Please model this.
Amino acid sequence: MCGIVGYIGYEQAGPFLLDGLEKLEYRGYDSAGVCLNDGNALVVKKSKGKLKVLKDLTEDGRTLKGTVGIGHTRWATHGEPSDVNAHPHLSESGRFAVVHNGIIENYQQLKDYLTSKGIEFRSMTDTEVIAQLIEYYYKGDLIDTVIKVLEKLDGSYALGVISQENPDEIVAVRKESPLIIGLGEKENFIASDVTAILSKTRKIYRLENNEIAILNRDSVKIINTDKDEVKKEIETVNWDINAAEKGGYEHFMFKEIMEQPKAVSDTISPRIKNGRVVLDEIKLTKEQLQNFTKINILACGSAYHVGVVAKYIFEKMLRIPVEVDLASEFRYRDPIINDKVLTVVISQSGETADTKEAMKEAQRRGSHVISIVNVVGSAIAVESNDVIYTWAGPEIAVATTKAYSTQLAVIYLMALYFGDMLGTIVEDEYKALVAELEHLPERIEEILGHKEKVQYLASKYFNTKDVFFIGRNIDYALSLEGSLKLKEISYIHSEAYAAGELKHGTISLIEQGTPVIALATHEELIGKIISNIEEVKTRGAQVMCIACDNHPEIEKIGQTVFIPKSCDMLLPSLAVIPLQLFAYYVASLKGCDIDKPRNLAKSVTVE
Ligand code: F6R
Model:
């Protein structure tokens, strides 16, 4: 959600800024802009809509003059997507320019105050107050001024500031919104995430809350708001640069679907040693674990769906009650959480505002938090008590696939590790599950090898308006994810229902030809889900099933995608593959913008 990039060096900044913004497109945006110091003045170019408009306007940045600049992709919060509301924002005289990610909660009071002093605003944004405040308080020292302005701001921000007064400097700050500093040879960078600067450098500083970075061409200095220098470790990013490129695939989403065997293997393999799951990153002792009376899972969207799967698995294997909460709801319901509750937070980006705030609420109430996070060094990873990283690599498509799969993999590892510690899994079952887990990447690969069957089924359904997903037990948790995947990228209305619940109301929506996708992988309930499928078929539904290959009879009641039979715990990782492919092929046939669906952002940094 919003992307920041900045360059200071000896080369023309324009092409890098445009390239960096392109790398950040995946975060979600509806306008884009850049500001460069051309030697005489700060020059802004910005436009509503796709980055392509700005690229065409500036010939991919080549017509922009200057070796210092900042750029931004904006996901509208305050004020509609428009040229004027796009960032960067200038102060009234045009001497200061600001890009901002986050929300200034008290912007209206600040705006009223500045307006009463005769300052005229051009945009509807909260960000413009920052540029205007800088100019209002500026008395010759930009750093002092930025520190003074920070004192006035409530809310979250990552900021990049350039000025006509200090033409050889970028000032960057963060509070609750991500920002990194890239360290190059005779050039330095700022960016919302590493994908924007990977083509230039792998050496970065991660700014922490209230740290201020002062970037010159040949140096970077980090200070705190008392102006004391902060000594930071340089981090070397080991992400493969190709991982953030399409590599011949038409869409990132498809590439990421195909990368799942490797992502799952990278997540699992280093944590299985001599047939036992070892989670060195968890510091909890057996005694601490035995003390927990409840597990509380917090997450949003697809990560929440992983949490719903985890509830079934943890309760069965650990015999501890589990509650799963949508992070956005959790902290407003006065939750019953204390030091006897273990909290598990799941987030790909590690920056989702709702999840981060829910985590802090759980910590405030004494709960120990284990986070499952993909982005190394992100806020949730850093602020949780323990973190287990998913090794999915950069996920660029807005709709998550490989991060979801690696999150599931971590849930299995946790279930086995804790089950072993607590003695709730018998040794034979433990060994069988670990052995199956080690084969999971191959099984995913096998399903991907039959993708054409799903493509064929997608061609039969893509014109539909509504789809229902049904399942029981873990299959119900999976149907939530299948439904979200389809609706978010194909814009087809879809709903997920616990199959047994249909007859309590929803079945009235089933009519001749209504598509129903039934998940029928859960062995114990196979008879029950078959009855539910018959119920909807009798009322005219057109049924597609996902089932294990030990139940060939299911093909008689609906067109079926078979997955290899595995133990129940691991089936979600297999059943989700056809669901992801189905959503992808349907969206592709409809000609949708698959990697960047309308209105959505990859990293949701506002509540
Ligand atoms: C859906 C999707 C979202 C995210 C959700 C949480 O495909 O990707 O629903 O799962 O926004 O994001 P993270 O995992 O970054 O906290």
Notes: The mean pLDDT is 95. The first helix runs from residue 13 to 24.
